[in-house]
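Let us practice reading a record.
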Amino acid sequence: MAALGSLAAVLSILNMTIPFPLVPFLKFDFAEIPDILAFLLLGPTAGLFTTAIHALFLYFVVPPFSPVGPIMKFAAVISMMLGLWLGSILFGFMKRFSSSLGSRLFIVSVFTFGASSRVIIMSLLTFLLYYLLMPDMYLPLARELLGRLGMQFQSDISVALVVVLFTGVFNLLHVIMGLSSALVVLRALTRVPQIATNGFWIYSRNRKSIS
């Protein structure tokens, strides 16, 4: 957990990100991949611990300092993990009625719940942040950036709702990127004879190989 949390911190320091074209201050962050790996390899507690280390580094080490950014990052990753966990529980429940369910359906289940949970929770938090909690800070910036895309708005709530829409798309794509990358690492680990992959949390939930 400490190693993966530190890896996430190092990737944050290296600023390994890709800006989201529609809203450039949203960035696809490769530092989330170790957080997801901790969850898949060691379980929800490890995922929470690693993500907390990641968030603390964003607070105290990675410039520039922002009180909101690390909280939103933590909420985004934890909301995704919550969905992944719920998806694994649902799959286990479904398996009681049909033992023929395969690993592909397991991946579909956890991805669907992980993506849905992150999109819904982060959309709500974004609306609260932009329209209710800090409109004077964030709405002018959002209006300016969206104006560069040729969008003009008559009301603040219109700006907030469009940002929420773009944020939802961003978070969906981020889940696809992060989970796909983590699964590539898992498949690579299954090819290392010295590693007991059956002990990984994700395998204990599925009881079948992902590859």
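A brief commentary: The radius of gyration is 18 Å.
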